[in-house]
């Protein structure tokens, strides 16, 4: 164990890249080990940043997500200052709609929940989050059907997982990050302490190890008797091309069959996604998945019918049984931190989660309450 690092980060998706960036920024000698598996969730996620439009997840998730999305502008500004390249982050607004009559009851329930939470918190302002009529909704997303109800959040943003992760990695490299492209075979231990990782015949030593391996994280915990109940959930997402259309000016759309539409400024619109629990690590597209995604997109936005199908992406979301992230230390194992289980909200939470575990790895307090996210909740 000739080479010793302060921290080793296992996994180079958005969470691991963020952890590495925050560690190196603090002057911590850091090694990032990235296997870059096919189907990594970071590379396929929708990148919707709008926890205020979430009417499903519990308060612990919501409070953390508001902090996480609120951190984006500060992070993006810093990455821009140091010349880390394009991050893709932009505010674009979001519509939550009942496209058809069968969605109206669910829409009304969520609308009441969102507006009651807004009134209780005193935020966002009613100028930023409010109901809109069908014509206003279509002006915000022209391909939209004549909806039965709509709620609009002006401050919603989007981010491309690939681009923000690459920017984080570039910034970390400039700050002295060491990167190894390969696979960690096991965590190295001594007594009840994790002291590094094993990569082939080599043991790389570290004061702390952060496991940020997404859906692949459980394999590293098993030899230690640490059960990380995260399983892959396949999501298939279609990318449509509308050459010449001002798609960058359009808003995100969410409806109530569990799908979304995310416009990008290059004549591209992402539509998805399937939620295939029990998929295993299959990364291929399926005829049924493509049909589901396109049928749902055209149901909500029939004006997309002339779009070209340019790409299908597949991401394996690391999904825990309760839908909450798995963040923090591991009881009984000093020197081991987990940062996984973000499910379909990894791009919302990922950069902030990386910051949280980077602070913990340095022995600092977490900048957020993560008491609901500990691995011990599954004991």
Descriptive labels:
D-Amino Acid Oxidase, Chain A, domain 2; globular; alpha+beta; FAD/NAD(P)-binding domain; 2 domains; 8 helices; 8-stranded mixed beta sheet; about 375 residues
Task: Characterize the structure shown.
The structure is a single chain. With 379 residues, the protein is an alpha+beta fold. It folds into 2 domains: 4-44 and 162-230 and 322-378, FAD/NAD(P)-binding domain (3-Layer(bba) Sandwich), CATH 3.50.50.60; 94-154 and 231-319, D-Amino Acid Oxidase, subunit A, domain 2 (D-Amino Acid Oxidase, Chain A, domain 2, 2-Layer Sandwich). The chain contains 8 helices and 20 strands. The strands form 3 sheets. Strands 5, 6, 7, 13, 14, 15, 16, 17 and 18 form a 9-stranded mixed sheet that branches. Strands 1, 2, 9, 10, 11, 12, 19 and 20 form an 8-stranded mixed sheet that branches. Helix 1 (14-25) runs parallel beside helix 8 and helix 2 crosses helix 8 (346-361). The longest helix is centred in the first third of the chain and has 23 residues, at 59-81. The protein is globular, with a radius of gyration of 21 Å. The mean pLDDT is 96.
